[in-house]
């Protein structure tokens, strides 16, 4: 089954063709980062307008890169939630038009379910059940993936997402947007004990997390050193910050995995590219005996291949949409 998949939930326009849920025939991503960099973050209206300009040509390219003609497509899958609402609407409307014109079923896909499915591309033997740590610019959650289409949140952030925290701190440091990648590269040559930073706890909810305290402490540290005329040890700060984020995430996902008892842990989302988190999870899984599944770096950030993968399993479960499909800024992952 060849699925044309569309993703436009934030600042990447993406189209892909995926065969039978696991084989990526093509994956095209057009990033808008350059346009948003001058503002230090994503400007929603600019993002929507750029999606409108890019999406048709990118979908055509995905079909031709796959070596297929339009009439060899079997369905159209699209991210319909969550995300910047204007941006998601562009993808949903395009996918509806394409499915209607080609006479194909329309498959709605939850963006975070897509991130989880990115693991299926790399790990052909990965099947649910497993526990997945989903960490991106908008999401930080530990998800119980009971089957391809049945999942629920075991724990998550009570305030900021981990990626958002990386981005805000990097913006104040003036080291670029999005900030996770530059912070990660700096951290690799820094001393993670240089600046002790807080790791948030939510009492009574041991799998939940909080990143707002870390963000505030980091911003205060940066401003205080500026005011005192001190030069911040940037690599040391980035390494200390990366350690604090990892120390929040890793013990909680390990505890969740122990509770669930599946023996399998996956990671998903843009922050899954973080080298410190990947290394700490590898070390923790070596100790616990859990099998760890990490997505390829190119499938950690937003892409449409992951939407095509998850779309296949949604279709198999009978989850197709009518022509009244809408877009949603927020949506529980359990609803799908
Ligand atoms: O999954 P994604 O592309 O978009 C969302 O669905 O949110 O994730 C983007 C986030 C940004 O916050 C970015 O700073 C972060 O992923 N990120 C990283 C790294 N690469 C990207 N965070 C930490 N370390 C990285 N290497």
Characterization of this structure:
The chain is an alpha/beta fold and 336 residues long. It folds into two domains: 2-115 and 301-335, ATPase, nucleotide binding domain (Nucleotidyltransferase, domain 5, 2-Layer Sandwich), CATH 3.30.420.40; 125-298, ATPase, nucleotide binding domain (Nucleotidyltransferase, domain 5), CATH 3.30.420.40. The chain contains ten helices and ten strands. It has helices spanning 33-37, 44-65, 85-102, 111-122, 162-173, 180-187, 212-227, 234-260, 275-288, 305-316, and strands at 2-7, 12-19, 23-31, 75-81, 106-110, 130-135, 140-145, 151-156, 264-268, 291-293. β6 and β7 (140-145) form a beta hairpin. It is globular. The mean pLDDT is 97. It binds 5'-O-[(R)-(carboxyoxy)(hydroxy)phosphoryl]adenosine (KG4).
Strand order of the largest sheet: 3-2-1-4-5
Proportion in helices: 40-55%
CATH topology label of the largest domain? Nucleotidyltransferase, domain 5
**CATH architecture descriptor name of the largest domain:** 2-Layer Sandwich
Runs in which pLDDT lies below 50 for 5 or more consecutive residues are none
Count of β-strands:
10
End-to-end span in angstroms? 21 Å
- Please count the helical segments: 10
**How would you state the average pLDDT, rounded?**
97
Fold topology:
Layout: E1 2-7, E2 12-19, E3 23-31, H1 33-37, H2 44-65, E4 75-81, H3 85-102, E5 106-110, H4 111-122, E6 130-135, E7 140-145, E8 151-156, H5 162-173, H6 180-187, H7 212-227, H8 234-260, E9 264-268, H9 275-288, E10 291-293, H10 305-316
Parallel strand pairs: 1-4, 4-5, 6-9, 9-10
Antiparallel strand pairs: 1-2, 2-3, 6-7, 7-8
The chain binds 5'-O-[(R)-(carboxyoxy)(hydroxy)phosphoryl]adenosine.
